[in-house]
Amino acid sequence: MIVIGEKINATRKSIARAIASRDEEAVAILIRQQEEAGADVLDLNAGAGQEDLSRAVEDMQWLVGVAQKATAKPLAMDSEIPEVLEAALSVVTGPTAWINSVSAEKRRMESVLPLAKKFASPLVALCMDDHGIPGDLAGRMRAAEILYRAADENGIPFENLYFDPLVMPLGAQSDAGALALSCIRSIKENLVGSKTVLGLSNVSFGLPMRPALNQAFLILCMGAGLDAAILDPCDETLMTGLLAAEALMGKDAHCGRFIRAYRKQMKKGGKP
Amino acid sequence: MEELKKMVAEGRDDLVPDKVRALLDQGTDVEAVMKQALIPAMDQVGELFQSGEIFLPEMLVAAQAMKAGMAVLEPFIKGSGVKPLGRAVVGTMQGDMHDIGKNLVIMSLEGAGFEVVDLGMDVAPEAFVAAIQTHQPRIVGMSALLSSTMTAMKKTIQAIDDAGLRGQVKIMVGGAPVNREFAKEIGADFYGKDSVAGKVFATEAVQI
Description:
The complex is a heterodimer. Chain A is α/β, with parallel strands linked by helices. Chain A is built from ten helices and eight strands. In chain A, helix 3 links the parallel strand 2 and strand 3.
């Protein structure tokens, strides 16, 4: 299971401030914390509605620079603007970076798929098209199939395609969880060779006991075949659930990672 | 009345229409049903949601119950001369496909007695301008969840200004990446941290 740490995102007001004031340490601390907590990839989103493109590019490149000093892990370039993605990818000195994201919207496929090819990036592919987010499984799969074919035409290997079924808040749509789960299963079954990823925390918006919901959902998704998740690795409930599920699925030899996580929590004086 | 209020707050859209009909049959005034039951029920629900005592699905079913009640009242309202509190045009910015925040705002506004024109998601600046020309609202609500669509807010306000309509509307903005400073910077009249704040602003704005 690939854990993509979500915390460096300018939607969060503290991050927007850190970027605006070029506060390297604030960003570096959060990156190290996420890595320490088990992040395999660090998502970077610098977009705070910058007025002009050059500013957006500058902000993102600064963020990439800071991140590369703080971690040797791969980064995920999170932007809707292709120029920002390209600028970010072109200053990568470490391991191959991810692109977050493309969708089956024509304009985005045309601009982002060539970048994924050029930089050999793993690519988060949202199951939505020019008409928005389809409300049912068939619609999401149609969007995924368009992306699958387009990726192939652009010479992108399927194993670099991470489909995100896009989960809606369960509180607003009672079948949102079930829909995402069937979407994961259907992608694994029909779009052979490709992978799945999910932004997790949206599912619990507006509901109580969010950590419990997020954890249960993550585990169900893993059972359905999820390969990667965009989440807060500092959420201990979530990460404990993830490690437990991996062990139970036979993906943790001698329960090594699970036991190590327990010892780490004990050492910190936390409850196991 | 108290019973109806409770039914709305509990989201009983199966019971609300009959209760409204029964009250009307007993001679209760249409306006009284609105102002003493439906609207206060949604006010209460909004406050409970804001304070974390009830949750999104509970708020949504209450809004459905309110709508079911309003549907019964609709034909009577048309004939009775009861005026809505005001008219509002609300939408999510161009490029943004998130509508829950917007829908919560619409619910709060409708709950307060506004007539709301829902423009949906991914709304182009020109569509906002056209809707203002067509519907002549006093309130315009804009929602953005993505940092990348915040710029669309600025463009939309600019478009409204360019069309010469800025003076006739009060613009309120909201959404996760938005804050008060940003709202001020782009020339909005109000930043609402949640749907209740938006409702309070809109209600005050139409009463000035």
